[in-house]
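Predict the 3D structure for this chain.
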Amino acid sequence: MRRPPLARPHSRSLVRPAVFALLLATLGAQQAHAGLFDDDEARRQVSDLTIKTNERLDTMARAQIELSNQIQGLREENARLRGQVETLTYELDSAKKRQQDFYVDLDGRLRKFEAPPAAEAKPGDDGKAPADAGQPAAKPPADPAAETREYEAALNLFKAGKVKEAAAAFDAFVRTHPNGTLAPSAQYWLGNAHYALHDCKKAIDAQRVLLAKWPDSPKAPDALINVATCQQELGDAKAAKTTLEAVLIKYPDSSAAATAKSRLKKK
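Done. Predicted structure below.
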Protein backbone atom coordinates (compact mmCIF):
# COMPACT_ATOMS: atom_id res chain seq x y z
CA MET A 1 0.00 0.00 0.00
CA ARG A 2 1.52 3.35 -0.95
CA ARG A 3 1.97 6.04 1.80
CA PRO A 4 0.70 9.49 1.26
CA PRO A 5 3.43 12.19 0.83
CA LEU A 6 4.49 14.31 3.88
CA ALA A 7 3.38 17.90 4.10
CA ARG A 8 7.00 19.37 4.05
CA PRO A 9 6.22 22.75 2.61
CA HIS A 10 3.89 23.48 5.49
CA SER A 11 6.49 22.48 8.13
CA ARG A 12 9.15 24.73 6.62
CA SER A 13 6.77 27.63 6.69
CA LEU A 14 6.35 27.15 10.44
CA VAL A 15 10.10 26.83 11.24
CA ARG A 16 11.23 29.96 9.43
CA PRO A 17 9.19 32.42 11.51
CA ALA A 18 10.42 30.77 14.70
CA VAL A 19 14.07 31.04 13.69
CA PHE A 20 13.58 34.65 12.69
CA ALA A 21 11.95 35.42 16.04
CA LEU A 22 14.88 33.79 17.87
CA LEU A 23 17.36 35.86 15.91
CA LEU A 24 15.47 39.02 16.74
CA ALA A 25 15.45 38.15 20.44
CA THR A 26 19.20 37.45 20.41
CA LEU A 27 19.99 40.70 18.68
CA GLY A 28 17.76 42.61 21.10
CA ALA A 29 19.57 41.12 24.10
CA GLN A 30 22.96 42.03 22.64
CA GLN A 31 21.83 45.61 21.99
CA ALA A 32 20.46 45.90 25.51
CA HIS A 33 23.78 44.66 26.94
CA ALA A 34 25.67 47.12 24.75
CA GLY A 35 23.42 49.93 25.96
CA LEU A 36 24.15 49.06 29.59
CA PHE A 37 27.90 49.00 28.86
CA ASP A 38 27.70 52.41 27.18
CA ASP A 39 25.94 53.92 30.23
CA ASP A 40 28.62 52.63 32.64
CA GLU A 41 31.42 54.02 30.49
CA ALA A 42 29.70 57.39 30.30
CA ARG A 43 29.26 57.48 34.07
CA ARG A 44 32.94 56.64 34.58
CA GLN A 45 34.01 59.39 32.21
CA VAL A 46 31.73 61.90 33.92
CA SER A 47 33.15 60.88 37.31
CA ASP A 48 36.73 61.26 36.07
CA LEU A 49 35.94 64.63 34.56
CA THR A 50 34.34 65.79 37.82
CA ILE A 51 37.40 64.73 39.82
CA LYS A 52 39.77 66.50 37.44
CA THR A 53 37.62 69.64 37.48
CA ASN A 54 37.59 69.71 41.28
CA GLU A 55 41.35 69.25 41.38
CA ARG A 56 41.83 72.14 38.98
CA LEU A 57 39.50 74.32 41.02
CA ASP A 58 41.44 73.49 44.18
CA THR A 59 44.72 74.31 42.43
CA MET A 60 43.34 77.63 41.18
CA ALA A 61 42.04 78.48 44.67
CA ARG A 62 45.44 77.80 46.23
CA ALA A 63 47.16 79.84 43.53
CA GLN A 64 44.76 82.72 44.13
CA ILE A 65 45.44 82.63 47.88
CA GLU A 66 49.18 82.57 47.26
CA LEU A 67 48.92 85.47 44.82
CA SER A 68 46.87 87.43 47.35
CA ASN A 69 49.53 86.82 50.00
CA GLN A 70 52.25 87.95 47.62
CA ILE A 71 50.35 91.13 46.81
CA GLN A 72 49.92 91.86 50.51
CA GLY A 73 53.62 91.22 51.07
CA LEU A 74 54.51 93.62 48.27
CA ARG A 75 52.26 96.27 49.79
CA GLU A 76 53.95 95.90 53.15
CA GLU A 77 57.39 96.01 51.53
CA ASN A 78 56.39 99.11 49.60
CA ALA A 79 55.26 100.80 52.82
CA ARG A 80 58.53 99.86 54.52
CA LEU A 81 60.61 101.19 51.64
CA ARG A 82 58.56 104.38 51.59
CA GLY A 83 59.35 104.88 55.26
CA GLN A 84 63.04 104.32 54.60
CA VAL A 85 62.97 106.84 51.77
CA GLU A 86 61.35 109.42 54.04
CA THR A 87 63.95 108.75 56.71
CA LEU A 88 66.83 109.00 54.25
CA THR A 89 65.37 112.20 52.83
CA TYR A 90 65.22 113.72 56.29
CA GLU A 91 68.76 112.61 57.08
CA LEU A 92 69.99 113.94 53.75
CA ASP A 93 68.41 117.31 54.45
CA SER A 94 70.00 117.32 57.89
CA ALA A 95 73.37 116.41 56.40
CA LYS A 96 73.07 119.22 53.86
CA LYS A 97 72.31 121.67 56.66
CA ARG A 98 75.27 120.46 58.71
CA GLN A 99 77.50 120.73 55.67
CA GLN A 100 76.26 124.25 55.02
CA ASP A 101 76.93 125.19 58.64
CA PHE A 102 80.39 123.71 58.31
CA TYR A 103 81.24 125.80 55.27
CA VAL A 104 79.88 128.93 56.94
CA ASP A 105 82.08 128.23 59.94
CA LEU A 106 85.05 127.49 57.71
CA ASP A 107 84.50 130.70 55.76
CA GLY A 108 84.50 132.66 59.00
CA ARG A 109 87.74 131.05 60.06
CA LEU A 110 89.34 131.75 56.69
CA ARG A 111 88.37 135.41 56.92
CA LYS A 112 90.14 135.60 60.25
CA PHE A 113 93.22 134.06 58.72
CA GLU A 114 93.14 136.58 55.87
CA ALA A 115 93.25 139.52 58.30
CA PRO A 116 96.67 141.27 58.28
CA PRO A 117 98.84 140.13 61.21
CA ALA A 118 99.77 142.61 63.89
CA ALA A 119 103.12 144.33 63.50
CA GLU A 120 105.88 142.45 65.22
CA ALA A 121 107.51 144.23 68.13
CA LYS A 122 111.20 144.91 67.70
CA PRO A 123 113.64 144.03 70.43
CA GLY A 124 113.91 146.85 72.91
CA ASP A 125 110.67 148.57 71.83
CA ASP A 126 109.00 147.67 75.11
CA GLY A 127 111.91 148.93 77.12
CA LYS A 128 112.98 145.44 78.13
CA ALA A 129 116.36 143.96 77.48
CA PRO A 130 116.53 141.35 74.75
CA ALA A 131 116.44 137.73 75.82
CA ASP A 132 119.66 136.02 76.71
CA ALA A 133 121.24 134.59 73.63
CA GLY A 134 122.04 131.44 75.55
CA GLN A 135 118.34 130.58 76.06
CA PRO A 136 116.65 128.40 73.40
CA ALA A 137 114.53 130.32 70.97
CA ALA A 138 110.76 129.89 71.31
CA LYS A 139 109.11 127.58 68.78
CA PRO A 140 107.64 129.71 66.00
CA PRO A 141 103.83 129.58 65.80
CA ALA A 142 102.24 127.47 63.12
CA ASP A 143 101.40 129.20 59.88
CA PRO A 144 97.57 129.46 59.83
CA ALA A 145 97.50 129.72 56.05
CA ALA A 146 99.56 126.55 55.64
CA GLU A 147 97.36 124.76 58.16
CA THR A 148 94.27 125.77 56.22
CA ARG A 149 95.77 124.60 52.94
CA GLU A 150 96.58 121.19 54.41
CA TYR A 151 93.09 120.88 55.82
CA GLU A 152 91.42 121.88 52.56
CA ALA A 153 93.61 119.46 50.61
CA ALA A 154 92.49 116.60 52.86
CA LEU A 155 88.86 117.68 52.62
CA ASN A 156 89.05 117.90 48.84
CA LEU A 157 90.35 114.32 48.73
CA PHE A 158 87.32 113.25 50.73
CA LYS A 159 84.95 115.14 48.43
CA ALA A 160 86.59 113.58 45.38
CA GLY A 161 85.86 110.11 46.72
CA LYS A 162 89.50 109.36 47.51
CA VAL A 163 88.52 108.31 50.99
CA LYS A 164 91.58 106.23 51.84
CA GLU A 165 93.92 109.08 50.88
CA ALA A 166 91.70 111.53 52.77
CA ALA A 167 91.89 109.40 55.92
CA ALA A 168 95.68 109.39 55.73
CA ALA A 169 95.74 113.15 55.13
CA PHE A 170 93.43 113.94 58.07
CA ASP A 171 95.42 111.61 60.32
CA ALA A 172 98.64 113.38 59.34
CA PHE A 173 96.97 116.75 59.91
CA VAL A 174 95.88 116.03 63.50
CA ARG A 175 99.35 114.68 64.28
CA THR A 176 101.06 117.74 62.80
CA HIS A 177 98.58 120.27 64.22
CA PRO A 178 97.21 118.65 67.40
CA ASN A 179 96.24 122.03 68.85
CA GLY A 180 95.43 123.79 65.61
CA THR A 181 92.25 125.71 65.03
CA LEU A 182 91.06 123.16 62.48
CA ALA A 183 92.16 120.10 64.47
CA PRO A 184 88.63 119.32 65.79
CA SER A 185 87.17 119.43 62.29
CA ALA A 186 90.02 117.32 60.93
CA GLN A 187 89.44 114.76 63.68
CA TYR A 188 85.73 114.72 62.82
CA TRP A 189 86.40 114.11 59.13
CA LEU A 190 88.95 111.45 60.00
CA GLY A 191 86.12 109.58 61.70
CA ASN A 192 83.89 110.08 58.68
CA ALA A 193 86.62 108.77 56.38
CA HIS A 194 86.95 105.60 58.46
CA TYR A 195 83.18 105.18 58.32
CA ALA A 196 83.22 105.57 54.54
CA LEU A 197 85.86 102.83 54.48
CA HIS A 198 83.41 100.60 56.39
CA ASP A 199 85.61 100.56 59.50
CA CYS A 200 83.14 101.49 62.22
CA LYS A 201 85.51 100.68 65.08
CA LYS A 202 88.12 103.16 63.87
CA ALA A 203 85.37 105.66 63.12
CA ILE A 204 84.10 105.43 66.71
CA ASP A 205 87.63 105.78 68.11
CA ALA A 206 88.28 108.88 65.99
CA GLN A 207 85.03 110.56 67.03
CA ARG A 208 85.66 109.76 70.69
CA VAL A 209 89.03 111.51 70.47
CA LEU A 210 87.18 114.59 69.24
CA LEU A 211 84.62 114.33 72.07
CA ALA A 212 87.34 113.91 74.69
CA LYS A 213 89.64 116.73 73.51
CA TRP A 214 87.09 119.20 72.16
CA PRO A 215 83.69 118.57 73.81
CA ASP A 216 82.63 122.14 73.05
CA SER A 217 83.48 121.95 69.35
CA PRO A 218 80.60 122.58 66.91
CA LYS A 219 81.45 119.14 65.53
CA ALA A 220 80.90 117.36 68.84
CA PRO A 221 77.10 116.84 68.47
CA ASP A 222 77.50 115.40 64.99
CA ALA A 223 80.37 113.25 66.22
CA LEU A 224 78.01 111.67 68.77
CA ILE A 225 75.45 111.03 66.02
CA ASN A 226 78.16 109.30 63.99
CA VAL A 227 79.13 107.18 66.98
CA ALA A 228 75.49 106.10 67.39
CA THR A 229 75.28 105.24 63.69
CA CYS A 230 78.36 103.03 63.92
CA GLN A 231 77.12 101.36 67.10
CA GLN A 232 73.84 100.55 65.39
CA GLU A 233 75.64 99.07 62.38
CA LEU A 234 77.81 96.99 64.70
CA GLY A 235 74.65 95.52 66.19
CA ASP A 236 74.81 97.32 69.55
CA ALA A 237 71.37 98.94 69.54
CA LYS A 238 71.44 99.56 73.30
CA ALA A 239 74.68 101.55 73.10
CA ALA A 240 73.35 103.48 70.09
CA LYS A 241 70.25 104.44 72.08
CA THR A 242 72.38 105.61 75.01
CA THR A 243 74.54 107.71 72.68
CA LEU A 244 71.51 109.35 71.07
CA GLU A 245 70.14 110.18 74.51
CA ALA A 246 73.52 111.74 75.35
CA VAL A 247 73.11 114.08 72.36
CA LEU A 248 69.83 115.37 73.82
CA ILE A 249 71.40 115.84 77.25
CA LYS A 250 74.70 117.45 76.23
CA TYR A 251 73.64 119.34 73.12
CA PRO A 252 69.85 119.91 73.35
CA ASP A 253 69.87 122.99 71.12
CA SER A 254 71.96 121.53 68.31
CA SER A 255 70.66 120.37 64.95
CA ALA A 256 71.99 116.93 65.85
CA ALA A 257 69.46 116.81 68.70
CA ALA A 258 66.62 116.80 66.16
CA THR A 259 68.23 113.85 64.41
CA ALA A 260 68.64 112.06 67.73
CA LYS A 261 64.97 112.60 68.60
CA SER A 262 63.86 111.27 65.23
CA ARG A 263 65.94 108.13 65.60
CA LEU A 264 64.86 107.50 69.18
CA LYS A 265 61.21 107.60 68.12
CA LYS A 266 61.84 104.74 65.73
CA LYS A 267 63.46 102.49 68.33
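The helical segments are 8-114, 144-159, 163-176, 183-196, 200-213, 220-233, 237-250, 255-265.
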